Automatic annotation (TrEMBL):
It holds the Pfam family SET. CDD domains: SET_SMYD. This is SET domain-containing protein. InterPro entries: SET_dom (IPR001214), SET_dom_sf (IPR046341), SET_domain_protein (IPR053185). Residues 1-160 form the SET domain. PROSITE patterns: SET.
Length: 308
């Protein structure tokens, strides 16, 4: 998928309803006790295919065609043609950027997987420029710009945890027959330490002295710099760090900087569908936020505070 125009951070790229939605573990798929693991796996895959056939059979002919044209990376493991496409292209319903069925580390909320005509074709990157989220209210998945995207640029999502080391990401992607050639995977000796530092981002503490400077927020600004260097704006830690810096500048009554980072935080929240937090929608609402009001009340009073 390529951008046909420029997109700003948070802009909607695609809003699409799925071709199919199925349980991650098909209902009614069982094996007999004592069956060897390999045979049990084949039996489960065979039964799962049988469960999926009636679902596939009820689809419109044009949707069936689009579904079967999707890539299938499970041709040799006993998966049938329908299940193979589902396992290759399904997105978990939850908010995490991870594919379905192959990953067992999921919460109870992530019980279904969805397959799309267009969104399932979006390629992977360990530095994705787009974020996705399924919205139950519209029964559709939205893909939004995680950072500014230029016309003609390829649009990427991610199929794994982008903060993990390259070796872990490679293992996650292997089941999809993907060998990632993004900058981070080609030079893990450079990339892995930066991502590890982002993952271990520190809290920042307000100095107790009255006339403090701004140096105490440098660790958070350094984290933002690392995130931008590695193009990790799709990570939840990008939003948390922006919020951290916003709180710090509000505490220092640096209105210009606080509003700058508040606007960036709102765009980052839009990118992942977190538009219910109205505090950052505009300048007026930011200035009415509890953080802003409290900072005005305690101006100049040294308090033991930290921002995580």
């Amino acid at each position: 998928m390529f951008a046909t125009r420029d997109f700003n951070t948070g802009d909607l790229i695609v809003n699409e309803r799925p071709l199919m939605v199925v349980p991650r573990i098909p209902v009614g798929v069982l094996t007999d006790e004592g069956v060897p693991d390999e045979q049990a796996s084949k039996t489960i895959l065979h039964q799962a295919e049988k469960v999926m056939r009636p679902v596939f059979g009820r689809m419109r002919e044009e949707d069936k065609k689009a579904f079967m044209e999707l890539h299938n990376s499970h041709l040799q493991d006993g998966s049938g043609p329908i299940l193979g496409v589902i396992r290759t292209n399904g997105y978990v319903f939850g908010d995490k950027a991870e594919m379905s069925l192959s990953n067992s580390n999921t919460s109870s909320k992530e019980t279904h997987t969805s397959i799309f005509k267009d969104l399932s074709r979006v390629n992977h990157s360990c530095s994705p420029n787009a974020s996705r989220k399924f919205h139950v209210s519209t029964f559709s998945m939205q893909l939004r710009a995680a950072r500014d995207i230029k016309e003609g640029e390829e649009i990427f999502t991610t199929y794994t945890d982008i903060l993990e080391p390259a070796a872990v990401r490679a293992k996650d992607l292997a089941s999809y027959q993907i060998t990632c050639t993004c900058r981070a995977c080609l030079d893990p000796d450079k990339s892995d330490p930066i991502r590890a530092a982002v993952l271990k981002r520190p809290a920042i503490f307000v100095p107790m002295q009255k006339d403090f400077g701004e140096g105490w927020i440098d660790p958070a600004l350094e984290t933002l710099s690392r995130i931008e260097q590695e193009e990790l704006q799709g990570s939840h830690l990008y939003r948390r760090t922006l919020h951290q810096v916003f709180n710090a500048y509000v505490h220092m009554n640096n209105e210009e900087k606080a509003l700058e980072f508040g606007k960036r935080l709102w765009a980052a929240k839009l990118a992942v569908g977190e538009d219910r937090d109205e505090r950052f929608r505009n300048v007026e609402l930011m200035k009415k936020s509890p953080q802003w009001v409290m900072a005005k009340m305690i101006r100049g009073v040294p308090l033991l505070q930290s921002f995580i």
